[in-house]
Design a protein that fits this description.
single chain; about 425 residues; alpha/beta; ten-stranded mixed beta sheet; six-stranded parallel beta sheet; 13 helices
Length: about 425
């Protein structure tokens, strides 16, 4: 069953509500990537609006209130509250009778929404493209400062509009568009778009005034910044001491391996279907596993149908949305975390599982190889390779113990700064 569509308890929490702090005197200006003179700096104290352009879909209720998921862009609202007077959010908006929990209301006094059509998939984007371009061209006229959260078509279109107007923008690169379009999970038509999508993303990264990467090296190698651009590598994953296990997990030899998957089912990015297919292969080989799938979204019904068709309903449980406290409990009770993503930046769920002292297996995409050892990596979209890796791990408790200890130590690098 899907999640019940109930409004969160009143009064709703609101993102964007805190008053901004007063910045120090001075001006913000970044050099241009191509050597041309930079536009006039933005003086502190002048009205400042951050245009935040992202791929997420937000919900709008009949009263006109716009709602976001519990962690959807939280770092952006926190960042903007202390620097900018307002945030103008450019994103897809879908009208709903009630927002599905967990949801938080955006504060209209601080966050203005430029609603774009809530298309789905490549075909939906193609149908909505003329309207998207018109809306974003109009919105780009008022841009003072724009943050493009790439990859994705919405931020790409806005970036091109700003480039044509000669406006500056900064980029937050959180994933690899090439990985998104390279895998079977998105169908043959999307593969034809890989070259232009990759080129456009590289162009926007190269011409951005500043760029933030979520990986240490992976995305930087493929999508380099301009020679004069300000750049940094940083993750929004900040763990508290209570998020860490006291000791690495120990797997009991011969026991049924309890596997946890955590990820959105709104798209096929996270590869939950690959894990389900791997479970069927493990069953046929006599490997005893039980999988808990934490996550919800459009493809949950499709995933349930796959589970039924493969006859693994006794081995795979769909939990729907799981609040973070409960998610940490699942990590603590699990033997193995699996993240068979088709594309990634630096996945929060993986870091949190590592902090709980779990051995982990992930696909060789994005920033995952920066976190896991080579023997814990598998090619994306390969259920057979994933099944082989899981079988190797659960047959070797010593390997599990080594991976758990290593992961716990690696995760300590994400301890929140004090």
């Amino acid at each position: 069953m899907g999640r019940a569509h109930r409004r969160p308890p009143s009064p709703p929490r609101a993102f964007g509500g805190p008053e901004p702090s007063t910045p120090a005197a001075g001006a913000i200006a970044a050099p241009s990537a191509d050597g041309r003179d930079a536009p006039a700096p933005i003086e502190h104290g002048a009205p400042r609006v951050l245009h935040l352009v992202m791929e997420a879909t937000f919900a709008r209720d009949p009263a006109g209130r716009v709602w976001c998921k519990e962690l959807q862009g939280n770092e952006h609202w926190t960042m903007a509250a202390g620097v900018f007077d307002r945030v103008r959010l450019v994103a897809r908006v879908v009208d709903v009778p009630e927002p599905a929990p967990p949801a938080l209301a955006l504060d209209p006094a601080r966050i203005e929404v430029v609603p774009l059509p809530a298309y789905r998939g490549i075909a939906g984007f193609a149908r909505a493209a003329p309207r998207l371009v018109r809306q974003q061209w109009a919105a780009s006229r008022a841009v003072e400062v724009a943050l493009l959260r790439l990859p994705g078509p919405i931020a790409t279109v806005m970036g091109l509009c700003l480039a044509l107007r000669g406006r500056a923008y900064v980029v937050e690169l959180v994933g690899d568009i090439d990985d998104v379009l390279a895998t079977a999970g998105f169908g043959v038509p999307t593969r034809a778009t890989r070259t232009p999508a990759r080129w456009l993303t590289r162009y926007l990264c190269r011409t951005a005034r500043a760029i933030s990467y979520v990986t240490r090296e992976a995305l930087q190698r493929k999508y380099p910044a301009g020679v004069r651009a300000t750049r940094c590598a940083c993750s929004d994953v900040q763990l508290e001491p209570a998020d860490f296990a006291a000791a690495p997990h120990r797997f009991v030899p011969g026991a049924t391996a309890r596997i946890v998957f955590s990820g959105s089912l709104a798209r096929r990015y996270k590869g939950a279907d690959v894990l389900v297919a791997a479970v069927a292969r493990l069953r046929d080989r006599g490997v005893a596993v039980e999988v808990s799938v934490a996550g919800d979204g459009f493809h949950r019904t499709e995933l349930a149908a796959q589970i039924a068709a493969l006859g693994v309903g006794d081995r795979v449980e769909l939990l729907g949305h799981v609040p973070r406290p409960r998610m940490l409990e699942l990590f603590a009770a699990a033997d193995l975390f699996v993240i068979p993503s088709r594309t990634e930046g630096l996945p929060r769920a993986l870091v949190e599982a590592m902090a709980k002292g779990l051995p982990c297996i992930g696909s060789r995409v994005g920033g995952i190889p920066e976190l896991l050892a080579d023997d814990a990596l598998v090619p994306p979209d390969r259920p057979d390779a994933l099944a082989d890796a899981i079988a190797r791990f659960v047959a070797d408790p010593a390997r599990m113990a080594r991976a758990a200890a290593r992961n716990l130590e690696v995760a300590r690098a994400f301890t929140a700064a004090r």
